[in-house]
Amino acid sequence: MERDEGGAGEKSREAAGESDAAARQRAAKIAAQRAAADAAISAVAGGRQALTAMTSASAAAAKAARMVETKRIAEREALAAEDVEQDEAVATQEGAAAQEAAEVVQSAVAAVADEYEPEPESVPEVEAEIEPAPAPETEAPAVIAAPGEPAARVPRRRQKPAYAAPANGAPPVFDEAITRWLSAEGAPASFARQLRAEFGEGEEASGRLVENPWLVLEVPGVQPAAADNLARLLLGIDARDKLTADARRSRALVSALLRRAARLGHTAVTADAVARDLGGLGVPDPAGAIADAVEAGTALVFADRLALAAAAEQAQGQGQGQAADGDAEFEAVDTADDDDPASMLTSPYTLLALDQWAFLEQSAAEAVQRLLATATPVEQGAGFDLADAAGSDAAEIERVGRVIEAVAGSGLTLVTGGAAELSGRVAAAFPGAVLASPSPAGLRALAAAGFDAVDLRTLNDDEDRYAPAAVVVIADAQLVPLELGVDLLELLSDGTHLVLCGDPIALPASGPGRLFRDLMEIDDPEFGGSVPRIELKKRPTGPLTALVDAVRYGGLPPMEILGEGQSNEVKIIPVRDPAETRLRTVQLVADSIPRALGLSGAQVQAIAVREQGPAGADDLNAALKERLNPGPGACGGFDAGDRVVVREGGRLVEFGLLGGETGTVAEAEAGGLILRLDEPWVGPEDEEGDAEAAGSGTVRLDPAAARALRHAWALTLREAQGGSWPAVVAVLDGGSASALTRSAVVGAFAPATQHLSVVHGAGQALAEAVEQRPHTPCRTRLAQALRG
Fold it and tell me: Would you say 415 and 440 are in contact if contact means Cβ atoms under 8 Å apart?
């Protein structure tokens, strides 16, 4: 009996030993796989270490390069919008400025790294329909492993300074092949000038385009088929298979696809989506094309760790993943063949990004972590009285007090749910605090509330204002573009307390990235918890605030909450077509609201979803001008008394005016007009000593400069963001129904403070947008970069 028990114990020990050995073997295998993966990543990441070191030593060069990049983008947007010859003096001045800035960048870069090879810049382009062509099946080529996360931001640099247009404004001159291509494609004169701005003219343009004809895809509006036609002319390639197999073509297409996604807000795109698009454009080897683009530096590649973690969690939830939590993500990465890197470069768990956006998000993450780590408590001003600042409302005093307490102890605080006054009250609590907004409408709202705020968009000109401030408060933070936000974060010194007050539900900033929204979504123990944030809530006080609150939370309230149509706060006016939409909008703005509520002029603002098209802002403004201020249009279609706004991209920087500034035409004649700006205005320094004109908020514009204006009785959604008006007429026409989202509806309704009239022609699309489409989805990497 004892022998039997001893034998059983021995067998048990042997079985346990075998189990331990199997476990050790499995652990060793996993460790080996991890080591192999780490080695593959480190091999490519090692090539970026020198790049990282160079970046940290050349911050001035990077900043100068970003300024050149911003200037060039603005120039190309203006050229695309105008079909007229550039003014001689402006062209000469801009060419000299670009040349000088480029020389500064080149000298700074040369001082730190002689071996650094500049890359072509990434140029935004206009959305173009791309007709896919079937892609032949081929074997997967050899590809490279994914590099690691970029540790610093290096802006893309041009191979040469921007070409300076002739001072005499002469039309561009190209060789016979390029001229023939322009004619065959039906290119307008403005496009020829864009081509010259990008590549020069004559032999210079021919030399660069013969070297790589597909570089023309960087010029806004060029479609892949048109670039292929140019390649046929310049390279003499007639065979379709030779053309589509050219590595220069595939690299340019990868860049074009990523830039197209950037225009929609994405800073990264899944590799499988890029591979599908490349196949549709006739690229025979999408995986090989992506690998080649990554190796050439056209794109950077990353693992989508959030998607991997979600996939691993889902697999565990279904009982398919039995690995420990620490192994779940690795097992998800390892689902494909370990020896097939091609599958990695076409995987939905792999992200591709242009380096300018990848490094911007990485820089934002590092700056956020720095501010959070270096903050020390800051004291309120000795003379600050919370009761005086917040008024007699006990609830408002409690809300403002909560925010001030959080700001005093944290390097970064996110605040949602507060009105424009809240950001001003928080800034008033701290001596020397800077209050800023990126929205002209938001600046006007702050000025109306009695707060002195500055335009964040002039950050590069106001660095001395921000750098020494202990507290910086940004209103309308959801409208801060990624690049401007990074410039601000990098400018602030250690220990600065940054407060971002915004509305993550409202429309975000245009362009790639969602800085404020991404920061709001960070909640990760590995990051150290969440970024400190305060959500302020307020009970609805009537039908108007009840409607806006209901939309924010994804629904439309029943009519009884809106007063059954009897309340003067909210009116819903159904319309059937654009003609009726125009008629009702004009009636409301010019007659009904002024008569019923005693509001008129700039107190009543129409807001349209889109700028062009039937019942768009331009169409509504034409009808409103005919009713409110008819006239011959003495200067560029404008007469004295017209309400106007500076177009986005309008070339009025020399007058101290940026897009979104509004005002009223004081005088107009054929030779020019005088614009009286709405407060707060940012006027130019009058070099001729006309102190009276400079101090009155007026600007003189000639007919050429006046083309940067348009009428403003009706603003677009984008122009209205951050603003507030006593009465708002929100125009939701049938033609804009497909563009509606919950964010767009909030953006149209929220600016009203006393009365909202909704001209409703969108039908069921309004409810569907509010309930099912919170915002236009976009893929970004900032949340992953913050996790390290």
Answer: no
Q: How many helices (H) and strands (E) does the chain have?
A: 32, 21
User: Does residue 414 carry a pLDDT above 60?
Assistant: yes
Q: Tell me which residue of 511, 462, 523, 524 sits closest to 487, measured CA to CA.
A: 462
Residue 701 has pLDDT above 60, yes or no: yes
Weakest mean pLDDT among 86-100, 401-415, 462-476 = 86-100
- Is the pLDDT at 709 greater than 70? The verdict is yes
Strands 662-669 and 570-574: unpaired
How far is residue 719's CA from residue 440's CA, in Å, rounded to a whole number?
8
Which one-letter DSSP state was computed for residue 644?
E
Place of tokens 């001082």: 111
* pLDDT the model gives residue 20: 58
pLDDT in tens, 281-295: 999 999 999 999 999
Q: What percent of the chain has pLDDT over 70?
A: 71
Tokens 């652990």 identify what position?
27
pLDDT score recorded for residue 55:
37
Q: Residue type at 237?
A: I
Instruction: List the one residue out of 533, 537, 561 whose CA is nearest residue 547.
Output: 561
CB burial of 569-581 (b: ≥16 within 10 Å; e: otherwise) equals bbbebebeebebb
Cis-peptide into 431, omega within 30 deg: no
Q: What separation in angstroms does the CA of 84 have from each of 77, 199, 692, 733?
A: 13, 20, 34, 33
Are 371 and 472 spatial neighbours (Cβ–Cβ below 8 Å)? no
Percentage of the chain with pLDDT > 90?
44
418 has which bridge partners?
none
Q: Are 582 and 625 a contacting pair, CB within 8 Å?
A: no
- Is residue 426 within 8 A of residue 400, CB to CB? The reply is yes
pLDDT at residue 581 tops 50: yes
Tell me which residue of 429, 462, 428 sits closest to 446, measured CA to CA. 428
Which residue is associated with the tokens 């007469």? 639
Closest Cα to residue 475, out of 133, 775, 722? Answer: 722
Identity of the amino acid at 757: S
290 versus 393: the higher-pLDDT residue is 290
Give the C-alpha separation, 590 to 587, whole Å: 5
Sheet holding 350-353, edge to edge: 269-270, 350-353, 300-303
State how far the Cα of 290 lies from the Cα of 344, in Å rounded to an integer. Answer: 11
Token pair, residue 750, equals 């929220």
Residue 256 confidence (pLDDT): 93
Please indicate whether residue 530 or residue 647 has the higher confidence score (pLDDT): 647
Nearest CA to 286 out of 250, 258, 248 is that of 250
DSSP string, 705-738: HHTTEEE-SEEEHHHHTT--EEEEEEEE-GGGGG
Q: How does strand 752-760 pair with strand 570-574?
A: parallel
The amino acid present at 780, given as its one-letter code, is: T
- With beta carbons less than 8 A apart as the criterion, state whether 152 and 363 touch: yes
pLDDT per residue as tens digits for the range 494-510: 999 999 999 989 999 98
Residue in 574, 567, 572 with CA at minimum distance from that of residue 540: 567
Phi, psi of 758 (to 5 degrees): -110, 110
Number of residues written out for the chain: 788
Q: How confident is the model at residue 462 (pLDDT cuts 50, 70, 90)?
A: confident
Beta strands 672-677; 662-669: pairing state: antiparallel
Q: State residue 86's pLDDT score.
A: 45
How far is the C-alpha of 218 from the C-alpha of 120, rounded, in Å?
A: 10
pLDDT at residue 94 tops 60: no
pLDDT in tens, 710-735: 999 999 999 999 999 999 999 999 99
The residue to which tokens 């102890």 are assigned: 409
Tell me how far CA of residue 578 lies from CA of 584, 617, 656, in angstroms. 10, 12, 37
Amino acid at 14: E
Beta bridge partners of 529: 524
Instruction: Report the alpha-carbon distance of residue 256 to residue 744 in Å, rounded.
Output: 28
